[in-house]
């Protein structure tokens, strides 16, 4: 038996994790929408996300945070980055003092420039800090739901808690590695979405595979620069939460951020693209937050800055590509 689990957020990732965790015992899945709760309780399916996935009888949906969190020793956060703070503030009175808090949220809070674990640290009492963890890596929810082999990283400053989560979640088709580099893992998970928009734009304009490879490689360099400036380790960015997630998100057809870029590259309006996707594309918000954070840290993110200018209507995708190709020449590494 694994840890008693509560999952806050019934989107695609929260739903597939409910299926994954139900192998080990009872799971409580919190959803805002009463219709989603009712559908899961009555028919064992989430009508809005992964609607063909049948959830086990030991997955109990609720819109009551107290009910969801009672007795949970593993609390998984799977909400959009812009909602994390408000959800945590509501959940705070009901979280067990010894619970491990596992974030699967990939983003940067725009107003503060905080990484997700920093938001959690600000909202929850100090006693929770050693048990704040993050899960990241190349992991489309659809493929997890279909039990296709998936490998991710769990990070926590206190490695024993990362190992506890690793043991709870791992199974023959879902494998977790562990690390204590919380910053590196979270920066990689957030910024790969920004680079995926850039790669999508390039592919949408049919600029070729050379351009795609260049954007991914230089994009990884940007991610690494910011992560290291914030205290992350370079080797983390060469792993699952950096290179692994970057490759998946930039090239996979299920990538919402790639689809945003493809649409922009094909001349579509951002609002139309987001409406058609129908789910959160974290890279749109993260781009602006990352550029603001990088400016504060004195870190250059030329690809991310060009993506921001396209999103804000300051440059066309074509002009953004030209701006990157005509930047001042310099060494590849410094």
Brief descriptors of the model:
2 domains; 8-stranded mixed sheet; 51% helix; N-(1-d-carboxylethyl)-l-norvaline Dehydrogenase, domain 2; alpha/beta; single chain; 16 helices; globular; Rossmann fold; 334 residues
Describe the structure.
- The chain is 51% helix and 11% strand.
- β2, α2 and β3 (59-62) form a beta-alpha-beta unit.
- It has 16 helices and eight strands.
- It has helices at residues 12-21, 34-43, 65-69, 84-91, 116-123, 141-145, 159-169, 182-204, 209-230, 234-237, 240-251, 256-265, 270-277, 282-297, 302-311, 317-325, and strands spanning 5-8, 27-30, 59-62, 74-77, 100-103, 132-136, 150-156, 174-179.
- It has an eight-stranded mixed beta sheet with strand order 3-2-1-4-5-6-7-8, with helices on both faces.
- The chain is of the alpha/beta class and 334 residues long.
- The chain folds into two domains: 5-180, 3-Layer(aba) Sandwich (Rossmann fold); 185-325, Orthogonal Bundle (N-(1-d-carboxylethyl)-l-norvaline Dehydrogenase, domain 2).
- The protein is globular, with a radius of gyration of 19 Å.
- α8 (182-204) crosses α14 (282-297), α12 (256-265) packs antiparallel against α13 (270-277) and α14 (282-297) crosses α15 (302-311).
